[in-house]
Specification:
single chain; 329 residues; mainly beta; twelve-stranded antiparallel barrel; 2 helices; globular
């Protein structure tokens, strides 16, 4: 999701500004002004919903499965807005490692390390859709390698292609000079490698909805990107994972051509599993934080983030190094 910074702020009268602060709605303006204000309220509500859902009843995930959406994959990126029209190649190498923990946060004795070299194509369209700038994506094209060292020192190794995601439409509205709202829909096809242990691909389809709200100006990039995954039943095990919510967040300050600050993610499951109890692997939940930076030069950009999970349940409590290289073709 590479992005460009918007232009300068337009002037607003003092009276209108005071009215807006007191009532929440611009005193004067066109119907479009009022519509964008309401859309901003809706976008904020969707982000808050993503934060609130994981606190309800959480019911586990299928043993041996992974979340289709790679946790933290959009950290450090202005996902609420879009770059100029064109075709972009984005490559995101990752390296991570950590100890598996149970529902109490205690180590299980299993150590997991992985690396991935995945790419995506982003096509930003020149025309508008529903009043928004919009783009289409093909994601998760590449390879993933996972190594699991069990407590008895047995080593499991999985290597292959992950499931490919297709996102036909991701729309971005500019609600004010510096506030943006993004909404998209896509799906993961069961196209990855499902043989071996661990499996890299998942033998089921997954529907994905995502929303971003962001404040972006010359000095700051503040973005929250909420992603919902809704899983279909696994054809091999007849097990269906519950739905998940993931929030990638970025708080960057820009100085010259360098943007830097804090990034992280929060992930949890918010709906019930369906399937054999023997495959129930507990309640996945994670929260991470760390530094990040992005450098832009002409049609290239390079980003780097380093995060550590501070709270983890029924997952590997990992440290992750994520790079992001993008280029306009």
């Amino acid at each position: 999701h590479p992005g460009t910074r918007p232009g300068t702020t337009s002037q607003v009268s003092v009276a209108a500004e005071l009215s807006t602060r007191m009532t929440g709605i611009p005193e004067r303006g066109t119907d479009m002004d009022k519509l964008t204000w309401r859309a901003g309220r809706l976008g904020s509500g969707l982000i808050l919903l993503g934060c609130a859902l994981p606190t309800g009843t959480i019911q586990a995930a299928e043993r041996g499965s992974i979340n289709e959406y790679p946790l933290g994959i959009t950290m450090g990126m202005p996902t609420a807005t879009l770059p100029p029209a064109g075709l972009y190649l984005i490559i995101k190498p990752t390296l991570s490692g950590g100890d598996s923990v149970d529902r109490t946060g205690s180590r299980t004795g299993t150590r997991i390390t992985s690396w991935a070299a995945n790419g995506q194509l982003q096509w930003v369209h020149a025309h508008r859709l529903l009043g928004a700038r919009w783009a289409s994506y093909i994601r998760s094209v590449g390879v993933v390698d996972v190594q699991i060292r069990l407590p008895d020192r047995q080593v499991l190794h999985g290597h292959g292609m992950p499931d490919v995601e297709v996102q036909p439409a991701s729309l971005s509205w500019q609600l004010s000079p510096h506030v943006y709202l993004q909404a998209g829909v896509g799906f993961y096809a069961p196209s990855g490698k499902t043989s071996g242990d661990p499996s890299i691909g998942q033998a089921h389809w997954t529907l994905e909805h995502d929303f971003s709200i962001g404040y972006i100006d010359r000095d700051w990039t503040l973005v929250a990107h909420t992603v919902f995954n809704f899983n279909i039943t696994d054809t091999a095990t007849r097990y269906r994972n519950g739905s998940t919510a993931t929030i990638d967040y970025t708080a960057f300050h820009t100085s010259g051509g360098l943007a830097y600050g804090l990034v992280g993610y929060y992930h949890a499951q918010f709906s019930r599993d369906h399937g054999p109890q023997a495959l129930n692997a507990g309640r996945p939940k994670a929260f991470s934080l760390g530094p990040g930076m992005t450098v832009r030069y002409q049609r290239f950009s390079f980003g780097l983030t380093l995060t550590r999970e501070l709270f983890t349940r029924n997952l590997a409590r990992k440290t992750m190094l994520l790079a992001n290289v993008s280029c306009r073709l």
